[in-house]
Amino acid sequence: MKLFVDTGDVEEVRQAAEWGVLDGVTTNPTLIAKSGKGFRETVLKICELVPDGDVSAEVVATEYDAMLKEAKEISSWHERIVVKVPLIEPGVRLVKALTDQGIRTNATLVFSVPQALLAAKAGATYISNFVGRVDDISGDGMAAVADTVAMIHHYGFESQVLVASIRHPLHVVHALESGADVGTMPFKVMQMLFKHPLTDSGLKRFLDDWHAAGLSIFERTRAGR
């Protein structure tokens, strides 16, 4: 499963990219607004930091002609940009039009299998299926993800299922179990993937024993030699 970081913070992207496991970045209007930077400059800097990854940048209009104009502008900035489009009626129409023009898309704010079906039939490159927000209202967000993955495979759609609104590492585990193609998460959640109490206690014991024995990886040289 590909790992994307969901952020508009360039420094978070830089740190995640340094780990060597980052496959892409998703942004949204809220995350870009929180960054305090310009939209275009932020997206282009992210593309620079993740040269081989896909970077989703979202349109903000809700009327078809305006959405199309924004989508073409955004897609012109960099070859790695994927145009993010909300799953509304003009959005589905836009996904189909962009797909026909060879422009990659990310259908976002998808919460149900019927919505995912519309996105897949329109040719969306990615289908962003949200889980955390469904869990927040006492639903089962991951159930729709699993059903969407099964639907995509059964009918041979080319869309990739992207699990969004990931809140904690268990969501990542469930995304893996469902067979999702991508998981996108806040930087703080990606940091949590490193953590396990037995890793911390095990490392502490190893280092305590090593230092108590007075060992060194680099042999000490004799004085004067």
From TrEMBL:
It holds the Pfam family TAL_FSA. Gene3D superfamilies: Aldolase class I. GO terms for biological process: carbohydrate metabolic process. Signal peptide: none annotated. It is found in: Cytoplasm. Keywords: Cytoplasm, Schiff base. InterPro entries: Aldolase_TIM (IPR013785), TAL/FSA (IPR001585), Transaldolase_3B/F6P_aldolase (IPR004731), Transaldolase_AS (IPR018225), TSA/FSA_arc/bac (IPR033919). It comes from the Bacteria. This is Fructose-6-phosphate aldolase. It comes from Fimbriimonas ginsengisoli.
